[in-house]
Specification:
Strand order of the largest sheet: 1-2-3
Helix content: 55-70%
Number of strands: 3
Length: 326
C-alpha cells in the first residue's frame, strides 16, 4: 500500500470512533442534553439519558491496539490515550448511574445513591469533554491534510472536475463557519462566495445532475446572503444549513476512492444539534468526456434530532461552530 493509503487506513478507526460517538450525541441530543443539565443542577428525575461512553471506549482501545494504526499519527495516539485515561473511570460510573435509573432504585433510597454518583460524575465528565475536544481537533487536522492531498492528486492526474467538487465542498464548509460566530464579517463572506462561484464556473455545463447541483449551490449562497443581511436569526441560519448541500432525492453523495474518508460535522449553533454531511451514500456520477470519474459531494444536513444524521459507515467528527473548527 502507498504511504497515503497507509495513513488513510490509520486515520479511519479514529474517524469511525468519533462517528459512533457523535451519531449518538446528535441523534439523542433531545434527551441527553436535558438529562445532563438536570443532573448537574441536582434535580431528581425518573429517567436519564447519557452519551454512549462504552462504544467510544471500546473503539479507542481497538484502535490503540492495532499495529497498523499505532505510531502513524503520534499526536492522535496521545490524545486518544488522554481520553481513555478519563473514560476508564467515567464509563463504568455512567453505566452504574444508568442502571440505577433503569431499575428505579431511587424509589428505595430517595435518590441517595444518585446524588453520590452525580457528585463523582461531573468532574470526570468535564475532563472528558475537554479531552474529547482536543482529540477531535487533532483528528480533524489530520483529516484536512489528507483531503488537501486528495485534491492535489486529482489536479496532478488532470481530473479537474473532481478536484473542483472537493474544493467546493471545502469552501462551502468554510463559508458556513465564517457566518456561524456571533460577529459576521459580511465582506469576508462575500469574498468566499466569490471563490465558490468561480469554482462553479469551472464545472462543465449540462443538465440533470450538474444543473441541479449548481442550482442548489446558488440557493445555498442565497440563504447565506439573506442570513448576513441583518441581525443574526437562528431560523435563517438553519436555512443556511438546510441549503448547504443537495437534497437526498436529487443527488446522492459520491466518493473519490472506493473507501473514502468521510466526515460529518456536528453543529451546536443556537443550541440546536445538527450534522453537516460530507460524503454519504456512495454512487458514481459520470460527466461526459475524458474527465469522467467518481466525484465527491455534500449530503443534505438535517436539523431534526430524530433523523438519522449520519449514514452507515460514515466517519464523523464533532465540530462546534462557536470555535470555528472543522
Amino acid at each position: 500500500a502507498s504511504n497515503a493509503q497507509s495513513r488513510e487506513a490509520a486515520l479511519s478507526p479514529y474517524l469511525e470512533a468519533t462517528n459512533d460517538y457523535n451519531h449518538n450525541i446528535v441523534t439523542f441530543d433531545f434527551s441527553i442534553a436535558p438529562s445532563l443539565d438536570s443532573l448537574r443542577k441536582g434535580e431528581h428525575k425518573e429517567y436519564i439519558s447519557l452519551p454512549n461512553f462504552e462504544n467510544l471506549k471500546t473503539a479507542l482501545e481497538a484502535a490503540r491496539s492495532d499495529p497498523k494504526v499505532a505510531g502513524v499519527y503520534p499526536d492522535i495516539d496521545a490524545a486518544a490515550d488522554d481520553l481513555l485515561a478519563v473514560l476508564k473511570d467515567l464509563e463504568p460510573l455512567a453505566a452504574k448511574l444508568k442502571s440505577y435509573y433503569s431499575a428505579k432504585t431511587y424509589m428505595t433510597d430517595n435518590y441517595a445513591q444518585s446524588d453520590e454518583m452525580v457528585a463523582q460524575f461531573f468532574p470526570l465528565y468535564d475532563k472528558f469533554d475537554a479531552a474529547y475536544d482536543k482529540f477531535d481537533a487533532v483528528v480533524t487536522d489530520r483529516y484536512k491534510e489528507l483531503r488537501l492531498a486528495q485534491i492535489d492528486a486529482l489536479h496532478s492526474e488532470g481530473k479537474e472536475n473532481a478536484a473542483a467538487f472537493l474544493e467546493l465542498n471545502g469552501k462551502t464548509r468554510e463559508l458556513v463557519e465564517m457566518i456561524s460566530g456571533e460577529q459576521v464579517d459580511k465582506n469576508a463572506a462575500e469574498a468566499k462566495i466569490g471563490e465558490i462561484s468561480a469554482l462553479l464556473e469551472k464545472l462543465p455545463s449540462g443538465t440533470g445532475f450538474l444543473s441541479s447541483y449548481k442550482s442548489q449551490v446558488n440557493s445555498f449562497i442565497g440563504q447565506v446572503r439573506e442570513y448576513t443581511s441583518g441581525s443574526p436569526d437562528p431560523k435563517k441560519f438553519n436555512n443556511v444549513i438546510e441549503e448547504s448541500g443537495p437534497r437526498r432525492g436529487t443527488v446522492r453523495a459520491m466518493s473519490v476512492q472506493d473507501q473514502p474518508l468521510v466526515r460529518c460535522y456536528r453543529n451546536r449553533q443556537h443550541r440546536r444539534s445538527s450534522v453537516l454531511h460530507e460524503d454519504s451514500d456512495q454512487a458514481v456520477i459520470r460527466i461526459g468526456g475524458p474527465d469522467a470519474h467518481q466525484l465527491h459531494q455534500w449530503h443534505t444536513p438535517t436539523l431534526r434530532g430524530g433523523d438519522d444524521p449520519c449514514p452507515r459507515n460514515a466517519y464523523t467528527t464533532r465540530a462546534d461552530f462557536r470555535r470555528h473548527r472543522l
